[in-house]
Amino acid sequence: MPDRALNKVCYVEDDEDIQRIVRLSLERIGKMTVQIVGDPTTAIDAMKAFGPDLVLLDWMMPGMDGPTLLKEMRQRNPNLKIIFVSGYAEEAFDKSLPENEQFAFLAKPFALSALVAKVKETMTAP
Question: Residue 22: helix, strand or coil by DSSP?
Fold first, then answer.
């Protein structure tokens, strides 16, 4: 993890059961504050108020898809670290995202150990 005392992670997911599991798993990493939001509009507001270092985005959400939300978030913070979480293959993202877009990917369903590893990897990446 970076040397900062605390990392801020926001997870955008509409399934409440997954929200709880992910929050507990990420908080166990330590040195991390986790904010869970259930919809893309709330995520945009959270971005302003919470100022996350990393956002985990579900690819498909009610009201706005992940690529659209990513574009909104990049306008506010071009250096924001993103992990897409999806049941779709990662290759499907290439057609929906701007060229050279930087993001990590975690396939659903995922083991909690894979989630923790991906978050640690992404937070420490340049």
Answer: helix
